[in-house]
Structure prediction request, 147 residues.
Amino acid sequence: MGHTVVVAVAPADLDNLDRLVAEQQESESRWQAAAEARADLPGLRGAAFRSARARIRAERNRYREEGRHRVTRWRALAPALGAELEQRGMLREWDPVPAGAQQAGQVLSGTGPNSGRGLTGVSGGGCARRPCSRSAGRRNANRLFAA
Prediction:
């Protein structure tokens, strides 16, 4: 079972974040077009074509994991969020959630440009789901929040 991380972002910062993500998406599209041209995809057929496409996808995914292509809000926020959590000592092993306690939590409300302190919640459909197990959670957190 995973958890969703919701980060509150001021509307002006959200606009800047969206601009950054759009720029990163355009940059990744240009990179992919260049990678496909280098691989000569139009001249390939069958297994050679599939293999070249798989190599390009693997490289693209590696760049995303390394933070070189920050093509979603989550990928753009994760490095800074990880640094903040590390600085606050929150990126560590935690005790497991007691049975039944998970349902006792409150639903995040009051986020939006017209509520509270004017912050908007950024979560994007389960963009930060991580396993609950202690070792897997820490391992995934290290991967997600690697600078």
